[in-house]
Amino acid sequence: MVLSSDGKRKPFPGKKPVSKPPAPAAAMKPGLQARAAAAKILAAVIDRKLPLDGALDHEHGNPAYRALGEGDRALVRAILNTALRHLPRIDAAINSLLESPLPEGARALHHVLAVGVAQILYLDVPDHSAVDLAVEQANQDPRNRRFAKLVNAVLRRLGREKQRILEEISDIPPMPAWFIERMEKAYGREAALAISESQLEPAAIDLTVKSDAEGWAARLNGTVLPTGGVRLAAFEGGIPSLGGFDEGQWWVQDAAASIPAQLFGDLAGRRAADLCAAPGGKTAQLILAGADVTAVDQSGNRLKRLRSNLDRLGLKAETIAADLTTFEPPEPFDAILLDAPCSSTGTTRRHPDVLWTKGPEDIARLATLQERLLRHAVTLLKPGGLLVFSNCSLDPAEGEEVVARVLVDNDTVERVPIDAGRWPGLEAAVTPLGEFRTLPSMLKMPGIASGLDGFYAAVLRRVS
């Protein structure tokens, strides 16, 4: 072999390159397929902007993931969630251990290293196992085979210098720079850093109960939240195994997501529409508040899921599949909940891929859609009726700014300020204008997991 001008090996003239074939699957080292699947899916998320949930779907997800047993699938999920939550710090750790940046186009190599670094720095995986399998993974991939020694050297050194490197990278915000900049502009540097750090912890499981929150908290070893829901402590087994699930006494819903529907108060005898209704948690809340509810969603498949969820809860609503920008009911509603499509940047504790699959252009596009939906929803409301506009974005461009534009040039609606005094424990989430703005860094309660999704909600009244 000789070296080309760019330092790469090439065969002698007239000689055919000899490639070492990858080992058959049956001969692969235990755990290798899981790491390979994690690297492939990480590439899909970061480089191709594909959502993580889709890749991890048990029926239609990434083939490499679907080929694994449940134990290995759990490991892949742990690696990916960890890598995505810490990615800026992982990249900094890799760069600190390289004498020169990775070659152009060496994305596959980056993902192998990122998977290894995530295990060594943040997961309970023996360092030697993470190193050995990363090297083997590089050897199995023709794109990375020539870098196998580099992978070995970088990850072994990382294991030796773990504590020093963790300290050095601890000040790097674990969110993409573009999003940190937007959060700083909206909330200030200190709050932006708190938001960034808060997404490192997985979200707790919150339940919305039909009634008797104190009783269900006692039965399920949970804690009653300021929102009236129940936050569970750690437990073994799946959600359906918990008491009250089969009887339809509660459903899983983040504390922040349960707020918008509560802003209407008593809806007894009122006609209410839940626009963008699936999967149905907010629809269920409106029904329990006494409303005759019409649940509208653009997706027929999502409405099937909504109906299934309502069936378990023993609740009924009219369901309509319709384009929400042109939907016209026979008569206007007394109340409308518009939980609009958004960038979902408030849900990074549950979906750490969001900030790597979305960008500023997505926020701008979705804000335009939200404004269009809101302006149309106002026309479906009776005079004197209430409309709650909400979404799970942290960016004011998708919340405060949308409502402000509508109020400026639409004199048929007015803002109804939310009374912070009615929300003990969440007073800080009510803005000076009387709108809700929850941040993942809020809701710190002794003895239980803290945080909630980032959410925005405003109440509007039709005045004419």
Describe the overall structure.
The protein is an alpha/beta fold and 464 residues long. Helices cover 41% and strands 14% of the residues. It contains 18 helices and 14 strands. It has helices spanning 32-48, 52-55, 63-66, 70-85, 87-96, 107-122, 127-140, 148-160, 162-169, 177-187, 189-198, 213-219, 259-262, 281-288, 300-313, 354-357, 360-378, 400-409; strands at 2-3, 9-10, 206-209, 222-224, 230-232, 250-252, 271-275, 292-297, 318-321, 333-339, 381-391, 413-415, 436-438, 455-462. Strands 7, 8, 9, 10, 11, 12, 13 and 14 form an eight-stranded mixed β-sheet that branches. The chain has a four-stranded antiparallel β-sheet with strand order 4-5-3-6, with helices on one face. A hairpin with a 5-residue loop joins β4 and β5 (230-232). The radius of gyration is 25 Å and the shape is elongated. The N and C termini lie far apart (82 Å).
Residues in helices, as a percent range: 40-55%
Question: What's the multimeric state?
Answer: single chain
**Unreliable residue runs:** 1-19
Number of helices: 18
Structure class: alpha/beta
Overall pLDDT: 93
Q: Mind summarizing the main beta sheet? A: 8 strands, mixed
- Strand-residue proportion: 5-15%
